[in-house]
Amino acid sequence: MKHLPVLKTSGRARPRSPRRVGVILLAVGLMAYFLLPAWAAPESKYDSLRLYTEALLEVSQKYVWPKQEEELIYGSLRGMMNSLDPDSSFLTAKEYQEYLQGAKEIPAEAGVVLVVKKNLLTVASVIDDGPAARAGLEPGDHIIKLDGHMLRNLTTQEANRRFQGAPNTKLKVQVLRNGEVKPLDLTITLQPLSLNTVTAQHLEQNVAYIRIRYFNRETPGELTTALKNIKKQQPPVKGIVLDLRNNARGAMEDAVRSASLLLGNQKVLLAKGRSTKTEESYPGKDRDLIFKTVPPLVVLVDEGTARAAEIMAGALRDQARATLLGVKTLGLCGLTKAFPLEDGSALVMTVSECYTPKGEKIQGKGLEPQVPAKTAEEAKAKDKTSSKEMTPAQDPWVKQAVDLLTSGKSKQVAQKEPASPGTR
Amino acid sequence: MVRKSWRWSGVALVLGLGLGWMFAGPPAVFGQNSNLPASPRSMPASLFPSPVSDAKLKVFAQALALIEEQYADPKPTKDLVYGAIQGAVGTLDPHSSFMTPEEFRELQIETKGKFSGIGIEITLKDRILTVVSPIEGTPAYQAGLKSGDQIVKINGAPTKNITLMEAVKQIRGPKGSKVTLTINREGFPKPRDFAITRQIIPIRSVKARILNDGIGYIRLTNFQDQTDNDLQAYLKKMKQRLVPFKGLILDLRNDPGGLLEQAVRVSDEFLSTGLIVYTEGRNRSQNMRFYARAGQEGKVANVPMVVLINEGSASASEIVAGALKDQKRALVMGTKSFGKGSVQTIIPLEDGSALRLTTAQYFTPSGVNINEKGIQPDVVVEEKKPPADKSLQKLRDEIITRHIRREGITDKPWNQPITPAELEKDLQLQRAVEVLRHWPPKNLAQRPAPQK
Known about the structure:
The complex is a heterodimer of chains A (424) and B (452). With 424 residues, chain A is of the alpha+beta class. Chain A is built from 12 helices and 19 strands. Chain A starts with 17 loop residues before the first helix and ends in an 8-residue tail after the last helix. Chain B is an alpha+beta fold. In chain B, the strands form 5 sheets. Chain B has a 6-stranded mixed β-sheet, sandwiched between helices. In chain B, strands 1, 13, 14, 17 and 18 form a 5-stranded antiparallel β-sheet that branches. In chain B, strands 6-5-7-8 form a 4-stranded antiparallel β-sheet. At the A-B interface, helix 1, helix 2, helix 3, strand 17 and strand 18 of A face helix 1, helix 2, helix 3, helix 8 and strand 14 of B.
């Protein structure tokens, strides 16, 4: 048996580091201060913070290349916020100042909604006819590189900001798509989004079709126009297909106002925070109601349906007996708030979560449609024709919705509903 | 409590050295415990700067407290801290990572060297679960899985977003049970299912054959605990069988690496003196120089030697190829190697989780940073191109069939001479044999001779 060559240097014993003790003591002190009352607190909290300092110490001492401590700490904060939900983010001091100045007019953007899920930057939705859609980006794509750089450890907020900028800015992205062997290289040219968020048309068999691309402040007004036009139809429409697929952008207010057009003063959603005390409900306004009796309604949803669209879909299902058709929604529906930290950076954190009027939690779970969309193969076939060129009348899911409305089955399904929390 | 943490951290470093070098390859799925002897020596107290300033740590504690008070859905503190450590490690290189206790336990099972599975090494390449290589002679190999195959489903469940650990866990299972992998491969019109029965996978890393005219062929599939012992055994047998022992081919193609210690021992089989490899870390304890020891190489000291490498030769393979090339002990042939020259050390943390941290880089004796450049062969020989008249699919079907029929070069007993027909299928091997038959080659600046 041979022996190993002699090691020139080696160290088994850890170097004594008085700072380490200091750090741990400091951590204990901080626990006492912040995690009140530390002496009564479960030991696990103490252990957890100590674990963190231990890990950081190992990295700072042993990692082969020196690392800025700020980078490590900010990386930690990003990681911690990402582990919560895609809406929770970390903001550097500079980013926080921008955040405080409020939503700036975005000169141009990619027209895409991104979320970080399991450390992967994922395309939640691609806005119809937007720059990303024109470049060929699809919901479900994972973005791995931007302008040649690997994207790692980004928060959802940061990622979305990277896809905004001056008009005509070109972004080179590399994406992974399920079923493709090689990553795809796409170039997105940033442009302002075209104005309308709502389009409507009349389908065969006297069914109306409304598409909401995404929600903004103008959406309730545009939807009012569309619904009023439908109301004028003679003979009255047999039903309405409301297409909320691939729609992950929009504020709660816009959803509440939009849903109220069909629900009047009925409750649209519940938002619950840490204690029941912060439970709030958001009813709409009676004067917004357009139809005395809401026509039969099928709402199309998919894994790109999130936020405002999920609120609206949940409310229509619970209060107007709408039938949801498609696949399970994303389950991203929380209200966030910013909390400044003492070095000027800040946390953006989900402080309350959406529930449907009947109390089904949306955040983190998604809405299960009562009617699943037809086979995955057919959905795939849809993808292949590319949604850009396909008219709603050719869309298999729309056809399925029309069949449901004209056969009168939508009512039956809706009666049987809901896929309530109890039945899951 | 502070004292307790001290005790633990001591354990951490010893274990850290023990498990240390196993990830000296691209993410290999299995590894072995090494018994790297380390002479314990205390270090002076003030070698390292303070890791993190109090102010920054305070910001972190403030953030943690805020989340615990305000986040909509209460989370265990430990989950938050795991997220934070993951985030911190995410700012490092891609080979560094954090393992939860469950993931770390899994890793330790793997290091025992025997497991029940199908025998593939897998990695996440561009975030797609990809077969690095099927281990020869295992169910996966016999089923026809190939390097570069993408595993899109395991037992019908999509592998999108799956972690490597999770994938390993799902593919493993009790002996005799079946796992179905859905494979996407260039050339497949659509993904195809492979149903594979799990077996106990013995890890043999050394294979051998001989040629009629005194030339030996040894192939290393990875570097694990038994590699050098097995190599010695084959060298001994070859020396008895091949008289005269005219030449040796060391095939390191598609060898993803393994234990650093084994790379050093393997190199030492062929070198009598001189530097083999050195590592440099930021921490001085990671700066090591490994030398060949005189008197260890007796069996094959002067046998002319060709080392075969390709872009699948990584890490420990690159150490061996680099040392034998720099010392002019062997002619290195094939194509440029992978270029992964960083050492990962496993550092257990006190709650059973662990860090896998890049702690050092390797350099060949002449100072080549393997991490950037890989090893350049002395003689470039490309792999045999598929004939134009055959479809890729047909070609692969043939290869698979050959494997199933155990017609691969190392599927036969070691002492059965390689036939000309076998040689013809492997252009690089063929060239290596030619060079040894006409030794010394012009390309080699200096004929290998034991150096002082």
